[in-house]
Amino acid sequence: MVRVMLILILLMMSGCQQTVITEEKAISTVKEAHEKNSLCGEITITSVHHRNGEYEVNWERKSNFESGTEFVEDKKGKITHGSHQIS
User: Fold this and answer.
1) How many CA atoms, within 13 angstroms, populate the side-chain half-sphere of residue 69?
2) How do residues 8-55 score in pLDDT, each as one tens digit?
3) Taking a C-beta distance cutoff of 8 angstroms, is the pair 30, 56 a contact?
């Protein structure tokens, strides 16, 4: 009986923990979003910061003087919001 209770407790606790994606995954998500179907070329990642449950990924594309910031949630790896500008 005690073993069954311990197993149940362990299963419940492990289900509550969510894995945080890696910095590399956040970068690849942003690159895919901006380079997919783009005729302007690749983007360069200028910085990445992880805080408050999300990655802040700053990037630039020199071919058209574009730059921006994307926020990627660290649990699901999806872009939640961002901004960009063309100078």
Assistant:
1) 8
2) 666 666 555 566 899 999 999 999 999 887 888 899 999 999 999 999
3) no
CA angle 59, 46, 69 (to 5 degrees): 35
Classified as helix, coil or strand, 14 is helix
CA distance 47 to 75: 20
Closest by CA to 55, choosing from 40, 41, 69, 38, is 69
- Give φ, ψ of 69 to 5 degrees: -135, 135
Cβ neighbours around 32 below 10 Å, total: 10
